[in-house]
């Protein structure tokens, strides 16, 4: 099935030439270690770089302004369903559509092994934001600031992506949508039924599926070579955390359901115990209510048995097995009266305090009636029973609230530690924006930078222990949260593109 992925990356000063070597598998990025290049191409290079694209990216590193982007890149997943020639045609069509004939670019298709043992074809489309205008410029002048009054004296004009973050987000959303349309057109022409959608699962109205964890080509290549990557390990931890979260939610729902059932059973048992203490008309009134309780419980049990039978019938179960299930449902109706007697033992074992209150209340009312020789006040009995039950429910709700608050605080601490680990992983892998001279890294508070570097200097086992200690100490988590928030604010103020 075709899958959709686009990630827009930018590079700072000193990063373009190295990234160009990476996508072309040149220099230290050998094909033996990083995998072969399935196809490559380039276009719109100026005269002095048409024979060697690496000269263009080296000039960008040397002459682009200090706070400018030396390159921009679209990392795009390609449909497996297309042949290699169709994938190349798809890349060239999208590059021509987005970059035209005025922006220099090069691309390379990589095919590392995915987790399912098949190819994971993707393309790195690396390009420059500066536009060719027909004026011949040397390497140094090409990357100078644009001169609107005398273009021949300045550098090439840069493409803008919006005056603010909101406009930039709209521009990038348009790019994402156009990439989906181009892919679907290629799939349709190839006679493939599968289609892709750039929208999130929530926007598509899909609620029964969780978003996939995108591993990326670099990590897939590392894992395919039998090595363990930090990103791959983090994703395995994320999958485990998702499963644990689902289990916790299911367990909480189950506990609440059991507690509600237990509370109802306590109320029923209250009325039965009070019925034993009442006499005359009072006893008859209580017994009528007890009989209603018994009938309701029988009805619920029979309805549950019938639902089980209907579910099994819906699976196509028939014949002797169907008759056997119906017989079991009828037998359940007869045994339900005997099984209700076990409820008292279960409540006495798990809720001794409420049961003891009910017994004391029954003895108190019975002894008081004997001493005063007056009829039993049924309304008083009901009121006392309700008071005991309400108090038990209040205690239970307070305990649940305390447990829920503790769980929320623990999840918040774990989230901060998770964000810290992700920053440390990106720093350890020297990803774009996390190198020593990168603006994003310099925007990180100094204390947080030192903590990340100290953490990365530890061995894997020591890092795991350090993360556990962090999650258990609120003071450390508070400092990490403050540093991460400061970093987020500083990075948002930088004039860089968004990574989508």
Walk me through what this model shows:
The chain has 500 residues and is α+β, with helices and mostly antiparallel strands. It has three domains: 6-227, BirA Bifunctional Protein, domain 2 (2-Layer Sandwich); 268-403, no CATH class; 430-492, no CATH class. The chain is 63% helix and 8% strand. It contains 17 helices and five strands. It has a five-stranded antiparallel β-sheet, with helices on both faces. Helix 9 packs antiparallel against helix 10. The chain is elongated. The two termini are 22 Å apart.
Summing up helix and strand content along with how strands pair, one would put the structural category as alpha+beta
Q: Count of DSSP E strands?
A: 5
- pLDDT under 50 segments (min length 5)? 369-374, 496-500
* Average pLDDT number: 79
Number of helices: 17
Radius of gyration: 35 Å
Fraction in beta strands: 5-15%
First-residue to last-residue Cα separation = 22 Å
Biggest sheet: strands, sense, closure?
5 strands, antiparallel
CATH fold description of the largest domain: BirA Bifunctional Protein, domain 2
- H/E element string? EHHEHEHEEHHHHHHHHHHHHH
The CATH class name of the largest domain reads Alpha Beta
Q: Approximately how much helix is present in the residues? A: 55-70%
The outline comes out as elongated
Strand order of the largest sheet: 1-3-5-4-2
State the CATH architecture of the largest domain.
2-Layer Sandwich
Number of domains: 3
